[in-house]
Amino acid sequence: xxxxxESRFDWQQFLRRWQEEWVPDEDDxxxxxxxxxxxxxxxxxxxxxxxxxxxAAEERLGTRLPPSYRRFLEASNGWRLDEGSIYRLGAAHxxxxxxxxxxxxxxxxxxxxxxxxxxxxxLAGMWERALQLETDSDMSYALLDPGDTxxxxxxxxxxYKGWSGEMPDRYPSFRAYMRRMYEQFHAGRAGLPGxxxxxxxxxxxxxxxAREEALSGRWEAxxxxxxxxxxxxxxxxxxxxxxxxxxxxxGGQHGFGELVADPRCTGELVPVMAVAHLGDHRPHxxxxxxxxxxxxxxxxTAAAEEILSRVRDRSYRYAPDGSFGRAVAEAGxxxxxxxxxxxxxxxxxxxxxxxxxGPDLLAPLGLLADPVLGPVATRERCLELLATPRxxxxxxxxxxxxxxxxxxxxxxxDAPRWNAPYDSYRxxxxxxxxxxxxxxxxxxxxxxxxxxxPGRPAGxxxxxxxxxxxxxxWQDRAVVAVGRTGSGWAFGFDMAPRTPEPGSFFVSPAGxxxxxxxxxxxxxxxxxxxGLAVFHLSVAERGEELYACTLRGTHVERSGPVPGxxxxxxxxxxxxxxxxxxxxxxxxxxxxxxxxxxxxxxxRILPHLTTRSWNxxxxxxxxxxxxxxxxERR
Length: 634
Fold this sequence. Notes:
Blueprint: H1 11-21, H2 26-34, H3 51-61, H4 67-75, E1 79-80, E2 86-89, E3 96-97, H5 104-109, H6 118-129, E4 131-132, E5 134-137, E6 140-149, E7 155-161, E8 169-171, H7 174-189, H8 198-215, H9 219-231, H10 237-248, H11 266-279, H12 298-312, H13 322-336, H14 340-350, H15 379-386, E9 424-431, H16 438-442, E10 477-484, E11 489-494, H17 510-513, E12 519-526, E13 532-541, E14 544-552, E15 555-559, H18 568-571, H19 580-592, H20 598-603, E16 608-613
Antiparallel strand pairs: 1-2, 2-5, 3-4, 4-6, 6-7, 7-8, 9-11, 9-12, 10-11, 10-16, 12-13, 13-14, 14-15
Helix pairs in contact: 8-9, 9-10, 11-12, 13-14
């Protein structure tokens, strides 16, 4: 309901409905049973004030009362509130200026400076000029501020809880405050058996309509209906509203109300709760007990603990039933090797086939908790999901969200310092080889297989993987993210090499890798100013290196017949410093059709492999020096 012309609001009808809907809460029922009060004592309304009483109050106060409060007095000269910390609003003859008896003005003004917002300045002055409305409370005050007004002449109302230590709650008008108190009255009794009236029936109908709107892709209309019902505490509203919020705002901490107790909803809701729960704790500390809410039985609790364990060790996989589940499995396989755009296209096409396993489920939320597919479901894609009809509903599909990955390799040059702190990256591609074969070709442990993705660290801070204790100082074992390009090359990408560039002991792994097909090795280092410092390219086939070239500054080292299309001197002829890296990457991309998946690398969802050393052992008479720096906090 809007805060426009006050004359359009029927205070008599609003207050009469409130009084008629009133039923005693637990405390009131106990008082009635003990005989301490009578039903008349618990009446909310008071007889209306006549114009003479209101004018007398205005003359005593020296001001005309704001419109909504004045019309309230004309309907009820005072009101009893049984929710919150304000217990009774006084009659016209009982209200008076607050006068700041506790010196709040000085306290609030001490926090002001030249950067303080206008609202902060108003609040600091509110205490001395406010009109006090309550006559009974729990150390709380209902204060109308004539210095905080709107275009309709309404005064803002502040509720200050003296025991809380918090800033006062602000309402734009007296009417806004009373409507919120009415909502709280409903919310406080929503769980009482038999609390049914025209208001609850209308709100419950809105909740059911919101469900249909959400499944039909009209999620914003559903959200508005559910938000209204949730303010009144209607069952089902909070759980459905939380689902929309989880998708619209990209996960986060969400409670899904009584829906969690429904075993049909466990697979969709609990994984999202588990991710949020683990995210609230430091990695080296075990989380506290996993809170699910009231009403969950032993079966749901056991299933939730098992899901939490799998989410913690990143073995959880979202696996719904039916055709949508088959599409999710296909998408997971694509995203596992880096094709996150292709994965989303599969999910997008299958969304209409998703069917809610529980009556109040609105979307496939479990997708968000999958360590591989969760990063695929970006906020923009989640909004696309919400706008897609599903669960048997029909309607227009939203415009597809654009793909995230730029084609080819040149995007790496467009992301300066993206692999801080080293500004160096290296990559190995093998043609016609599946990613699972890379450990046998270049892996440190041969056929030990690939390691699980490490996940994206909080704050997107790169750290160089620690060397194993048994590694010799000269060794340079790369820890590469492994995937597959769209043109059929397996790749391993190291975003933070232990050494920033190929040195004198460097031996390209292209030869060993090329037993499975052509192999290409690329190593780039940038200078401090962002320009290109070192560019190395080596190509091998059938176990033999075909050619290699290394650009250091302006000097080029070559071995073998480097094709003209890849020779740095020819590629960079007439190219400015800012475009050198991009031009060389474009040449490699054009020659071999290579690419790298930006989103999968940035989100760190690809499996990892520790390769054999990219350096050879020093030969007799060769000198090798290294230094280790350790920083400690004093």
